Each structure stands twice: as C-alpha cells, then as structure tokens.
Amino acid sequence: MEAIIVLFLTGIIALFLGIYNQPKLTTLVSVIGLIGAAVVQHYPLNILPAEYNLLEFNQVGNGFVVLAILLTLLIVLSGQKEFLEEKSHAGDYNALLLFSLCGGIILIGFTDLFMFFLGLEILSIPLYVLAGSRKGVSESSEAAVKYFFMGAFATCLLLFGVVLTYGATQSFELSEILSKTINSSGNAMLYVGMIFILASFLFKVGVAPFHFWVPDVYQGSPTVFMGYMSSVVKVVGIYAFIKFFHLAFGGLYDFWSILIAVLIGISMFIGNLSALVQTKFKRLMAYSSITNGAYALMAILYPSALSDSTLWVFMLGYGTSVVALLTISMILNDDTDEIASFKGIGYRKPLIGLVAITALLSTSGIPPMTGFFGKLMLFSSVWSYYPWLIVFALVNSAIGVYIYLRLIMTIMSKETATDTKEITVSLTRTIVLVISLLILVAGWLMLLCWK
Amino acid sequence: MELLIITVVLGLISFFVPRNSIKLFGLAGSFVSAAIALIHLINFETGSSVSIFETTEMPFGLTFQIGYDGLGLMMIALTNLIVPIILLSNYNNSATSENRVFHALVFFMQFGLLGVFTAADGILFYIFWEFTLIPVFLILYWFGKGTNKVLLKFFIYTLVGSLAMLLSFIALGLKANSFAYSDLLAVHLPAKEACWIISGFLLAFAIKIPLFPFHTWQPDTYTTAPMSGTMLLSALMLKMALFGMMKWMIPLAPEGVAEIKWLVISLSVIGIIYAAIICIKQQDIKRLFAYASISHLGLIAAGIMVFTKNALVGASVQIVNHSLIAIGLFLVADILESRLKTRELSHMQGTATLAPKFGFWFAVIAFASVSVPFTAGFIGEFTLLKELTKFHFAVGLLSATTLVFGAVYTLRAYQLSMFGAPKNESFEDLRWNEILVFILLTIAIVGIGLFPQFIADLVGPSLDKLIIIFNETTTH
After folding, report:
1. Interface contact A366-B166, CB threshold 8 A
2. What are A400-423's pLDDT values in tens digits?
3. Looking at residue A1, what DSSP letter applies?
4. Neighbours of B18 (CB within 10 A)
5. Residues 6 or more apart in contact with residue A210 via CB below 8 angstroms
6. Who wins on pLDDT, B1 or A56?
7. Number of domains in chain A
8. Residue among B61, B131, B171 whose CB faces A367 most closely
9. How many CA atoms lie within 13 A of B152 on its CB side?
C-alpha cells in the first residue's frame, strides 16, 4: 500500500516538473521514486491502520511487485532519450507510467472484485493515452483507438461477468466466492459469469482467440510504451488472472483448466506461426509476446502457482529480455522498423551483440540463461497435470528457437545493412543493457533468496 | 574445480590478449588445461569416483553435483588433450588462429564439454549439453562458409533432440523428486514408461551421433565449417552423445532397452553400410570423411546397445581412437583444401610426388583409419565386432563390412589424391605444426594400439557398476 502512495506522489511531482520543462530532473525523480517504492514494498513501514489496507501481498506477491517496479525502472531509463526529444511531455509520460504502475500493484494485491476492477482500470487508462502519444503518426492514433475500444469492450465483458458472479454468490470477496462455488457447482449463472470474466482476461493478456489486437497496437505504439505493455502489463495481468481464477474459482478447476489449456496450446502455436513470417521487428515481438504469454499462463494449470517462484522466474527472464530487445530497437532508432536494418549491429557494437544474443537465447529457453530456468520450472510443474500440453509447448519452443536464431544471425552478421548510420548508445541505455545482461545470465540465482 | 574454472578463465582472458600474441596464448593455455587433466589422470585411483563440487540444496530440484569416475575421466582427458591438438593444427589458419573471439569460443566450448562429462545431475547435464551448442554455433557462423540454411538446420535439428531429452529428464525427475544422478538411477519404471523415456534420450543422442535417418545435418555442416569447427564437432561434440548413451540413457531406463535395442542396432548397421557406400562414390574429400565418421560412429553406437563389458571397453577405446583419427583426417582435408582451393578428389592427383612428407603422414592416418593391427582402431573395432557377432551373427557379419568398405573408400581417397601424375604445379609440403600434430596423433594411436589395457583399466570399474545396475533391473 505504501508503495502505491510513494509512486502516486512521485507521479504528481513528475507532472509538476514537466510544467517547468525539466526532463532530466523528471527522470531522476521517477527513478528515485521507483526505487523508493520497491524498498517500501519490501520493508513495509505499516503506518496505515489495518482497516485501510484492502490489499494483501504474500511473498510471491511482493516478488511480483518488485519485478513490475524493476521493469518499469528499466523502461523509464531506456526511454529517457526519447522523452528528451519532446521536452514538454517528458513529465506526462513518466507520470502516466507511474500511475499505470500503481494500478498494476493494486492488481497484484487485490482481495475483492472492487479493488480488482479499480486496479485494472488504473492500469489500462494511462496506457490508452500513451499508445497514442506519437501524435504525428497515424499508426499511433490507430493503436490508441484500437486499444481503447478493445479495452473498453473487454471491461464491459468483465463487468458483466462480475455482475453475474455476484448474482450467483452474493459476494465480492474472493474467499467467499470460493467457498460458495465449492458447494454450489451446478449454478449456471456462475458458469456464464466465469466465462465472461475469462474472455475479458484473455483479451487483456492477449491470448487466442482474443489476441488479434496485439500486433497492431504494439506496432503503432511508441517503442518505450510497447515495452511497458509487453512486459509489465503482461507480468501483472497474468498474475492477476491466475490469482483471480485460483482464489475465486478454484472449485471449478476441472471445468476451466481444460478450456484454458486448449486455448494456451492454440495461442502459442498461432503466435509462433505468425512470428515466422514477420519482417517488422515490433510485430515479431508482438507475436512473440503472444507465445510467451501463453507459456506463462500455463502456470494457471497447477494449484500451487501462487505460492512458488516458478512464474516469477519465467516472468523475470521474459520481461527483461523484452526490455533489452526493445532498448536495442530504440538505439537503432529506425522508423521503418524492418528486421533487415538490424543486420550487423551486434558485430559493430559488441555490447549490443552480447545483450541481443543473451536476450534471444533466454527467450528461446536455452541454458544457462534465466529464461531456461523459468521454462524448466514451469514445464516440470505442469507436467503432472497436462503432459500433452508440455509436449506441445516443447515443439513450440523448437519453432521459437528457429525464429530467434534467425534474428541472432541477422544481428550478429558480419555484413551490415546498406544504409549505415552512426549508432550511439547513451549512458542510461548502457546501464539498462548491462542490468538486463546481468539479470538474464544470473537472474535465476535470485531464487536462492526465496525462502 | 580448477579443471572447469581454468577454461572459463582462459576464455575470458582471451578477449583481452593483444591480437598478435593470441595464437601463443591459446596454445599455452590449452596445454595448461591439458596438464591439469594429466595431473588428475595420474592422481586417479582406479575404481574410485571423485567429487569436484557438491551442493544438494537448490530451490528448483537442481543439485550442483560435479564429479567424475573412470569413464568421465577418460572423456575429460580426451577433451583436454584434443583441444591443444586442434589449436596446434589450426596454428596457420590466420582467419581463426589470430582471432580473440575464436579462442574464447573454443575455451567456452571446452568448458561446456567438461561440464557434460562431469555433471552428476540430470538438469546440469542438460544445461552443459545445450551450452556447448552456443560456442560451436558461433564458430561455425563467424568463421565458416555455411549458409544460414545449413546452420539453422544444424542448430534446430540438435535442439529438437535435446528438447526430447529434457522431457525425459522432467518425467524421470518428477518420479525421483530430484534430478541427482544417484536418485534418477534408483527409480524403477514400468516397461511402457521406460520405453517413452528412453526414446526421448535416444532422439537426442541419435541426432548428435548421428544415426542413420537423423544424419542429414551432418555432411553439410562438416563441409562448410572451418577446420577447427569440424574437429570440435566430430572429435569431441559427437562423443558427448556416445558418453550419454553409456552413462545416462541405458542406466537410467534399463527397463526400456529391450524394446529399442533392435531398432538402434538396425539403424546403426544401416548407417554403417549406407554411409560407407556413399563414401565410395564421394568426390568431395571433406564430405567423404564426414560420411566415414557416420559409418565409424554407427559401429560404436551398435556396440554400446549390446551393453556387455567387452563391448563397452571396445566402445571406449574406439571413442578415443575415432577422435584422434577424425583430427588427422580433417587436417588432411584442410591441408588439401587450403592449398589447392578445391575439395574435389579429381583435382588432387599426384600430390604425393609434390609433397612426400604429406603423402607419408596421410598414409599413416589412412592406415589408422582402416584399423590395421597395432593401431587403436584394430583393438576397438575388433572387440566391438566380436561382441556384435556374439549378440547376433547377422549383425556381426553386416557390421564387419565396415572393415572392407573402410579400406575401399579410405585407400581410394588416398589413391585419387596422392598417386598418379601431378595435376598441380606445386604443393607446399607440411609445416612444422602439422608434422607435430601428425606425430602426436600417431604416437597416441599406436600407443593405445599396443597397450589398450590402459584404457580398459581406467574405465573398467565404472563400466562394471553400470553393467551391474543394468543387469539388476533387467533380470527382475
């Protein structure tokens, strides 16, 4: 709870600094605020009376909050250069990111449907604005409109589902819903409500059959905010998804698990097949995020997902590699966004090359990168429940390797793209790249800190 | 511990060594690692098993256990002794030998290999197994002539196999509640599950060895790779698969061996004959040696599936022998290719008259390759064929054709490239480093040929243990 207050205040300060045209100071304040929020989350001060505390964080929840803050921090740092170009808006961008993160933290800690809905909206609304922040570009406006309509539609579905669930159980408390559903499993209204909620979640995290908005929105949005959507929003959204279904509908596991398992299978396959033929980098990343979101969602299929570190490690690997790759894309600063223009940058700039190789190998799940450990733990946890899905996921991993390996070969090629511009890596981006490199190579050692 | 650390340290230092002294640094470093392996070899008490590093508590069922027994030590020593020889034979190829990244990659590769041979935990084994792919892929990509298609085929093919192995490890590890080697050994499986699990392992190993229908990545990869890459692949990386069959696949799921035994042995025998026939018609010398490698390794794989003491000893000797011969043959191919700018046998006629020293040493390696008595190949192949004949007469008979075919294609390659009127005007004879490599290889090959008991004593006790485990479960 204190973390949200810290972030909110930081956001307000950032807004005011924006008025005085102080982009560098804004970034500095945001960074300090983010670090402060992480510290406060980890070592709570407990200054608020208990009855105001509608959020609950267990150890895993805390881990996810810290992860979301860490990823946002990396995104703020790597986007700083783009913010500098539009000095008058730097404050707005930082503040909106921080506000959105507040919603994300609420989504991690919710205990009833009110807080859940509040969190979801606070997370989403700043993103509708941010998606359209490249005002001169029509794709950006298209992305914003599309994202807004899809998001609003998903919210309607969600509300409808919530209403039906409330009608069936007479409660907004997750734990009460759970106890009711265990006893009255034959209530049709409850099932309909659950399906609506499921559909809206699938919309929000971009899982088939509701994934089609993802590539367009990601491609149109500015790269920084695409990084935020495909890392932080995915991390938080999937955690909330799992928490919701385990804590509220745990009694109906047999019903929804098979449905979700099939959708996961379809989703990873669609993501991979579409990624195979992409020539634009951001679209490729969008489809890759559909696939990886599906992998992560597999955690919903085993009961102890909320109390162990499996999903956290997977998300650490995935989120960091997304941020690293998009940072590289921003460094390249190529408006056409063709994969071909990545040719040879890794060979020209060894740091970029090293980070790109590590990030891509990590996403494809090759040891000894963090992504491998995430996948390993995820797959071995789900193996006892849905073995066929794991076999299918491994086949998909192999397809994924093909996609990422081609990208590695492009980036590390000895030849360079035809129009070679001078590439400069700013200090903040170097910091981002180095931090992501460390996390990707040795992040799994953080598991030793888990009790 | 220094055994593994030194390669990482050498790899990291390689990035910072001045460009003009990297050649010497690489060579010196690899000799240091070889010396360390020799010290381990000397201090090793026959039959014991040495633990290098051990933790048992890890958060996700992975235990860090590293150690070796006789079999592992043989592979370690092989790796650490082969790497200096590879760097030595590569000494004059300035494109690679004067490159810092290349040396770093070779040392990281060595690290991965040592990890595979020392890992005593399933997941750790898998991690190192996959890790070796990264440096060798980058070596092939940056220093080879391979098209993207060839490289992708190589990487994806081997990776798909590994994923199947990972699945087997997960299934087995969840039954044992741990991935430690000793715990995995203790699991008893119903025959049907064992069959699935062993198939997962088999896919990984069959692709890497490679066995007959899975071999299509290999000739293209070998021919387009730089010489040192080919050597790393054929002399060391493929041996991971044979080692994996002996130490991991069969002991972990012995209940499934009966079902797949005939499949593997038939595939191996088909591979032996099929590859040998291709060799006889082959015009490209590097491709010829690549197919020869399939033929030779098929015999070892068939021998391992028989899983008797003698067969395994024979396989061990043959593993060492094949590494040595592969280095020799691919060095020969590279000498011819780099000086004549062609790999076609028909353009090489009469090289022996122009370069008599080269002609002599090629003959030595060729004879070692066809397993004449007093070379290691004779001991290895003879034992393997004996055991295969004991297992089933037809299998023995068909695999024995490798001796005949081997002689035909090796000597044909020698005749076409060395004898006759010289087609080329000049041919630079061997340089000092090449002669040194050939001498070292010959000493090793003849040494093992005369005194194979050394290897038998080294690996014997650990093979006995594996066979006891195997017999216990299969007779139940």
Report:
1. no
2. 999 999 898 888 888 776 666 677
3. -
4. 8
5. A154, A199, A202, A203
6. A56
7. 1
8. B131
9. 16
Q: Evaluate the omega torsion of the peptide bond into residue A23 and state whether it is cis, within 30 degrees of 0.
A: no
Measured from the Cβ of residue A214, the count of other Cβ atoms closer than 10 Å reads 24
Structural tokens at position B354 = 């122009």
Grouping H, G, I as helix, E, B as strand and the rest as coil, residue A262 is helix
- On chain A, the residues whose CB falls within 8 A of the CB of B138 are 412
Cβ distance of B141 and A412 shorter than 8 Å: yes
Q: Report the residue of chain A nearest B172, measured CA to CA.
A: A380
pLDDT of the residue at B320: 92
- Interval B109-139: pLDDT, tens: 999 999 999 988 888 899 999 999 999 999 9
Distances from the Cα of A258 to the Cα of A252, B102, B167, angstroms: 11, 49, 21
Domain ranges of chain B: 2-475
Residue numbers of the domain that contains A356:
2-449
pLDDT of A43 reads 84
CA-based R_g, chain A, Å:
21
Any bridge partners for residue B51, and if so which?
B67
| Rounded Cα distance, A251 and A121, in Å | 27
The ipTM assigned to this model is 0.88
Exposed e or buried b for every residue in B394-409, given b needs 16+ CB within 10 A? ebbebbbbbbebbbbb
Q: The tokens of B183 are what?
A: 């715990």
Q: Which residues of B touch A379 (CB under 8 A)?
A: 166, 170
> What per-residue confidence (pLDDT) applies to B57?
65
Q: Which of A215, A209, A194, A249 is nearest to A147 (CA)?
A: A215
Instruction: Say yes or no for a CB contact (<8 Å) between A379 and B170.
Output: yes
Which residue of chain A comes nearest to B149, CA vs CA? A406
Q: Which one of B4, B8, B56, B60 makes the best mutation probe of the A interface by having the most chain A beta carbons within 10 Å?
A: B60
**Chain A residues contacting B via beta carbons under 8 Å:** 309-310, 313, 361, 366-368, 372-373, 376-377, 379-380, 383-384, 390-391, 394-395, 397-398, 401-402, 405-406, 409, 412, 414, 447-448, 450
- Alpha-carbon distance of B272 to A124, in angstroms, equals 63
Q: How far apart are CA A247 and CA B242, in angstroms?
A: 49
Mean pLDDT of chain A: 88
* Total CB pairs under 8 A between chain A and B: 70
Say which DSSP state A259 is in: H
Contacts of B266 (CB under 8 A, 6+ apart): none
Most confident of A33-37, A78-82, B169-173: A33-37
Which residue, among A309, A357, A366, would best test binding to B if mutated, counting the most B CBs under 10 Å from its CB?
A: A366
* φ, ψ dihedrals at A368, nearest 5°: -95, 35
Question: Residues A3, A65: contact at Cβ < 8 Å?
Answer: yes
SS3 A221: coil
